[in-house]
Amino acid sequence: MKAVQKPDHLSLNALITRLKDGRFVIPDFQRDFEWKPWDIRDLIRSIFLDYYIGSLLLWKGKKENFEALSCEVIYGYDNTTGEQSWKYEKGSPDYIVLDGQQRLTALYYSFIAPNVNLPNRASRAIFFVHVDKFMNEKYDDAFQYDWLTKRFESKLGDTEIQYAEHFFPLSIIGTGSWDLPNWLQGYEKYWENQAKIANESGDTQEEELAKQHAINAKAFGEHVKGITEEYQIAFIELDEELPIDKVCDIFTQINSRGIRLDVFDLINALLKPKGLQLKLMWRKSASKLEFVDTEKMNVYILQVMSILTQAYCSPKYLYYLLPGQEKQVREPDGTRKKEVLVNDIADFENKWNNAVNSIEKAIKILKHPQEYGVSSSQYLPYVSIIPVFSALQNQIEKIPYEEKLNAQRKLRHWYWASVFTNRYSGSVESTSARDFIAIKNWLYDKEAEPSLLYEFKYRFRNLELRKETKKGTSVYNGIFNLLVIKGARDWVTGNIPQNGSIDDHHIVPSSWGKENIQGNLIHSILNRTPLTAETNRDVINDKLPNKYLPKLIATNGKEEVEKILDSHFISAKALSILLRDPFTPDDFEEFIIERQKTIFDAIENLLIKERLDLKPVIRELDENVENIELSLRKLINVTINGNIDLIPSHILTKTNERIKKAAQKNPAFDADKYETMEGILEFFDLREIQDLIISKALWDRFQPIFLNKENLVQKFNQLAELRNGIRHSRTVDEITQKEGEASIMWFKKVIMIN
């Protein structure tokens, strides 16, 4: 197999020769030459001190690639500020510079000294070495530049002045031929002659100084010779036959002086010859997407286009968005065919606009306080989740109206599972593709639930929320978003703060934590909650809860304060801990443990059991039904002494099938747990609980509790009607609600639920 990459080295001399020959060209997607004169000076200093200056990434060029990428000659080449190389009369273009443009241009400008002003400067800059300072190891002062004034220009034309002032123009190196050795020999002879003149005049001090300069001149000449011949510049050469889609992949990993080069710029360059100005399209779209603070949004638009078009969004797939570009695909029977994903410029523009609209709608949904609760961009768990989230929202638009509610619930489930499993914290292109395919399938097939959701369900209680101390992590932001969705009310006014007025408040103040708590636990999300800035700064103002909460209770009543704090996942028990006086580090630890438990319960109830979109009254009824189901399961386990053999066979068969399917889908499934009565009962639905209790074999055991079988069945029916209304339609009519409330009260009384 032919190697696509070839690491190699060039001597400084060889590199300068190639620069003079016009062998290097710059693709249009590269930013302009931006270095300041001091940047160039520092590069020269590094070379003369034999420091590593990084490697170059070059692509062996050919005419079609020069044209496709709108390549230009290096700034300053042949005294120009850049020309299209394949149309330019001079130069022999050979390499497309993917990384290293700034360094190569700096080398050309300093060593060749073209008759071109530096960008955004009124004149040329000339770079030189002060030899005397260099030889005396005064390196900070040895490397210099100056502007080409008339006085300075005369110096460039007079070697005697250069020798006398120890002024070595770097352009001497770039001229080639015999100019460099002639200059170095002339410099040494000049100071040898000065030593003779001083000797003849009897000035011993000047003589010794001149002799030292001559010695330095010789040593400097050897150093320059060594640098030009032996200093090696590393480069990686990409094979000219390497397809552009592969170059896209490599390109996105490149860094140049700390600035990541963007695949967007590459795609822009490839579209230019086709008559499409992608940067202009982005400028028109940018204002719609300002909420999210990221420099990658232009790439995200391309990724949404790619996901919707071909399900994939890594850089090499973005290449297939070019109008008319053929992509090879594999058919189900194994054969291959070529297809065009984007027909023409109009098709590209339509897909771009569709992607922009999808992201815009997705941002609105993420911002909504009752949807995803992203109060500001800093509280977005992942910026990188936007492309796939937007693409999935786009898919939901195509789903029949009556199925949209269920589809949105599925999307929320995936989103929160991704947040609390840190799914989008690393490289995300492949993850985005897998999730788009999996969730899209699930939208249309209820049996295709992704394993990620099982992992979330069974593992979220293993999260160490106490370690989430820094804004910006997915889990920290996710909890903060959940508080917004919950409708966390202001502690003083009782109102829900508007997004723009939310402060991230320490419940127990950080000043107390610095003196009493080791580490960063005081900054944990378990000790943070959203409040209005006014309440946070003017009312609470760095006080312990046992100082400010009693005042709130005295003003508003304990019941109202408990309701307000409940909206912050602070239970009545947690409140009682916060009111302790004195408040100790042990109390703080107890509070943290209690609030974590409350938040875990909230994650389970609101996210996993999908109660986010329920009205508060309906949500409470749903929670009551679930508590009754849990209590009935416990009652069954106790009543039949955990004997699995007593479960009616038809119920046990159905339940075991569900357990088997769950185990197949979830790698984290604990099979041993579900071989016990307790585990099996988790998979019972309400009707199966009823059927077991009223079965002929077991009714005698349950009759003393429920007394009348017919009445029990009626109460189960009312409870089931309420539950089904909540879980499926998300709305409940008045009769169903009243009958359901009556059945809840009856069950609570019979099985003694508090």
Can you describe what's shown?
This protein is an alpha+beta fold and 754 residues long. The protein contains 35 helices and 15 strands. The chain has a six-stranded mixed sheet. The protein has a three-stranded antiparallel sheet with strand order 7-6-8. A hairpin with a 2-residue loop joins strand 10 (255-256) and strand 11. The protein is elongated, with a radius of gyration of 37 Å.
End-to-end Cα distance, whole Å, is 73 Å
Which overall shape is indicated by the principal axes computed on the Cα atoms? elongated
Question: What is the strand tally?
Answer: 15
Strand order of the largest sheet: 1-9-3-5-2-4
Strand content: 5-15%
> Helix content range of the residues, please?
55-70%
Number of helices: 35
Number of discrete domains: 4
Q: What structural class is derived from the secondary structure elements?
A: alpha+beta
- Average pLDDT rating: 86
The biggest sheet, with number of strands, parallel, antiparallel or mixed sense and barrel status, is:
6 strands, mixed
Poorly predicted runs are 255-261
Cα radius of gyration in angstroms: 37 Å
Question: What brief labels describe this structure?
Answer:
754 residues; alpha+beta; six-stranded mixed beta sheet; three-stranded antiparallel beta sheet
Which helices and strands, and how do they pair?
Layout: E1 5-11, H1 12-20, E2 24-26, H2 37-48, E3 56-60, H3 63-68, E4 72-73, E5 95-99, H4 101-112, E6 125-130, H5 131-135, H6 139-142, E7 143-147, H7 150-156, H8 159-164, E8 167-169, H9 171-175, H10 179-200, H11 204-230, E9 232-238, H12 244-251, E10 255-256, E11 259-260, H13 263-271, H14 278-286, H15 297-310, H16 315-318, E12 326-330, E13 336-340, H17 345-367, H18 386-397, H19 404-420, H20 429-444, H21 451-459, H22 474-486, E14 502-506, H23 510-516, E15 528-532, H24 533-540, H25 545-556, H26 558-566, H27 572-578, H28 585-608, H29 616-639, H30 649-665, H31 677-681, H32 686-694, H33 699-706, H34 709-729, H35 734-750
